[in-house]
Design a protein that fits this description.
Jelly Rolls; mainly beta; globular; five-stranded antiparallel β-sheet; 13 strands; single chain; 2 helices
């Protein structure tokens, strides 16, 4: 895997290069040794899979508060998505800034999003599928989210937002006095 820093502190893009021959390809999706520099002492605790049926659908912006804050590693297994990280960490040099990358099986990219950074994505193709690796289990009492349409963030979604869950549609705007989260 090759690692590329993004403009957001602590958010990385990992790139897997497939090994191909006449039979097809092998791609390493996860390797604890390769990821040791970003994982540190964290361990993968939970793996989730999503399928998003409609191009234009948005999921997010989601995060979990401490003590259940989590690092997420996201890969696209089918289709294409526009994956977004939003820095919500108090005292971060990139506080309230966002960064997005297109993820697809063809480009072999994986977004690595640390604790205190919210995550969301928009499906660019119908029936897009994502694989999530989490360093903490889902804890409903610690979940949080903000509106993906918050003008304060000014996220430039590539497609019109055509579908949101009731939960995501009810996420609040970032309050004017928001000073960030402590991961």
């Amino acid at each position: 895997m090759k690692f590329h820093p993004t403009p957001l502190t602590g958010v990385y893009l990992a790139e897997s290069v497939p090994i191909t021959d006449h039979r097809g390809a092998l791609t390493r999706l996860f390797c604890g040794n390769d990821l040791a520099s970003v994982l540190g002492s964290r361990r993968i605790i939970q793996i989730n899979y999503t399928q998003t049926r409609l191009a234009g659908a948005v999921r997010g912006l989601h995060l979990q508060h401490a003590p259940h804050a989590e690092m997420k590693m996201i890969r696209c297994l089918k289709g294409r998505v526009w994956d977004v990280a939003v820095d919500l960490r108090a005292d971060s040099a990139t506080f309230l800034r966002w960064h997005a990358e297109e993820l697809s099986p063809q480009n072999g990219k994986m977004m690595i999003i640390p604790e205190g950074v919210a995550h969301g994505f928009q499906a660019l193709e119908a029936d897009s599928e994502l694989l999530y690796l989490h360093t903490a289990a889902y804890a409903p009492e610690a979940e949080a989210g903000f509106s993906c349409s918050d003008g304060k963030l000014d996220i430039r979604w590539p497609l019109p937002i055509l579908d949101l869950s009731a939960r995501d549609a009810s996420h609040p705007l970032i309050p004017p006095d928001f000073s960030g989260v402590t991961p």
